Amino acid sequence: MATDRILSIFMRRLYGLFFCLWAPLFACCLSAPEPGDWLGVGFRTPEQTFRTFQTGLRADQPDLEYRCFALEFKRQNIENQGFYRQFREELFRRNPLLKLAATAEIIEVQERPRGVRRLIARVDTWFHDEVFAVDFVREDYYEIFEGEEIGSDDFCSFEDSVALKNDRYIIVIPANAEIPLVGISEIRIGSSWRIASFPTLETP
Q: How many CA atoms lie within 13 A of 25 on its CB side?
């Protein structure tokens, strides 16, 4: 039994070393996104955001990847969008498996405390299946468009901003005195799901 255990540990470590060496090479061979992948870009659910992140990885588009991250994650880890390119290089160097997330399949999405959704995904490699987790948080927002441009936008609480009254939805968001009512071309209010962290599967 002791011999089997030692052999098992040795094989896991050997595979881990091989995987770290092989993963970057595999990541360089990712296929480009299909037209349908671009049409599916969005952030309405954790699954859609994850697929959007995959599209960014496969297209080597750091700007699209950056949009997938939550505001708090950016504040703690990324100074600005330009700095993200350096951040991603270090992130992928320390976690080569994240680059392989571009080919991962979603297994399930779990509800966690404090409104967090944990997405479990699997990468099917030639030699071994790797399972990893991505945590998502919801961010509520509103946008007021003036012509083709956003004249005003901010984060908000969706529950506090939308009410049902007399079979009608009433939207309450801050007014911008600099934008005349006749100049408003569109008002958006919604919720998006963004990446908050890449926890280990043992993280509670």
A: 7
